[in-house]
C-alpha cells in the first residue's frame, strides 16, 4: 500500500513516527511519503517538507505568512497527485490538513484523520467538513468519542493516547549520567518547556526565567525545541543558574523535580512523566482577545480537560506573571501538594486507555483499505 502522511508540528512528528513503525510492521510492502520531521525521517519513507517550514503561530502570524501557506498547499496537492497514494493520513494540524482533505476527497482518495482536529475547543461548525471530507477518524482523548458520536452522530475509533507508548517504550534515563553528559550540576532540576515556535518561546521565557533567583537551590533547564537552533536561545542564558539542552525533552522530564510548561501537548507529556507542573500561556494582546471570544473551554491544558477538573494550575495571560509563578512553583515543591497531584496523574493515565494506540490505528487503517 502507498501511504501519504501529513504532520505539521513537533508532536505530529512524534506520533507520525510511531504510526509509521506500526504500518511497516503491519504492511511489509508499505511505501510512505510524508510531511513531518526528523523522527519520521529516521523511521523511513520519503520526507517531502519539514514541519519547521510549516509552523505559524497565532492569527496575526498566519495572515503575515498567508502566501507561504498557500504555496505549501499547492506543493502538497501536486505531490499527492504524482504519488497516487491509497490513503492520506492526516495528523492534527487542521488548518492545513482540512484543506487538503477536502481537495483529496473530491478526487476519490481515501482520507483518514489520526489525532482528530480539536473542534470541541473551537470552530465546532467544522464538524460538517469533517463528516464530508474524512472516511475514518481516530481519536486519542476519551471525551472525543462522545463528542463525535453522541453529539454529532459521526462514528469514530478511540485508540488511546500515543504518548503513553512513546513514554513507556523509551529507555530509562540515569539522572547522574544525564547531568554529567549535559554539563549540569547536582542541584534538583526545574524543567522549562517554553514551546516550539520562536514567537511563543521568546514571550514565555521572558516571564518563566524571571523567578530563577528566587529558587537558587534548584537549577532551571530549558528544553530546546528541535525546530530551533542554539543561537536563538543564547539571549536567554544570562543567569548562571539557567542551563540549556536541545532535543532531549523526555530525558529532561524523566529527571525533573517540577516544570513550568507552555500550554499544549507538553502539558500532557509532563503529567505522564509524573512531574508536577504549572501551565503557562501568554500570547499577543490581539491573538488573546480573539481567542477568548471564540474558545469556550473551562481549561486550556489537556490534563485538566481530560480530568474535567483543575488538576494543574493554569496561569493565562495577565495571570502569568512573576508573582504568581513564584507562588505556584513553591507549591509544587511541597511534599503534601506533590503527593496529591501525583495521585491525580495516575488517574489521568488510566483514563487515556492504556498502551498500543499506534498499533491499533495501523491495524484499523489497513483493515479499512483491504
Automatic annotation (TrEMBL):
Enzyme class: transferase
GO MF annotations, alphabetized: lipid-A-disaccharide synthase activity; phospholipid binding
Keyword field contains DNA-binding: no
InterPro entries found in the cross-reference section: Glyco_trans_19
Matches recorded under Pfam families: LpxB
Domain of life according to the entry: Bacteria
Keywords: Glycosyltransferase, Lipid A biosynthesis, Lipid biosynthesis, Lipid metabolism, Transferase
GO biological process, one term: lipid A biosynthetic process
EC number(s) on file: 2.4.1.182
This protein's record includes keyword Lipid biosynthesis: yes
Gene Ontology annotations for the cellular component aspect, listed alphabetically: membrane
Catalytic reaction annotation: a lipid X + a UDP-2-N,3-O-bis[(3R)-3-hydroxyacyl]-alpha-D-glucosamine = a lipid A disaccharide + UDP + H(+)
Entries under NCBIfam families matching the protein: lpxB
Function: Condensation of UDP-2,3-diacylglucosamine and 2,3-diacylglucosamine-1-phosphate to form lipid A disaccharide, a precursor of lipid A, a phosphorylated glycolipid that anchors the lipopolysaccharide to the outer membrane of the cell.
Name used for this protein in its record: Lipid-A-disaccharide synthase
Organism: Flavobacterium silvisoli
Organism lineage string: Bacteria, Pseudomonadati, Bacteroidota, Flavobacteriia, Flavobacteriales
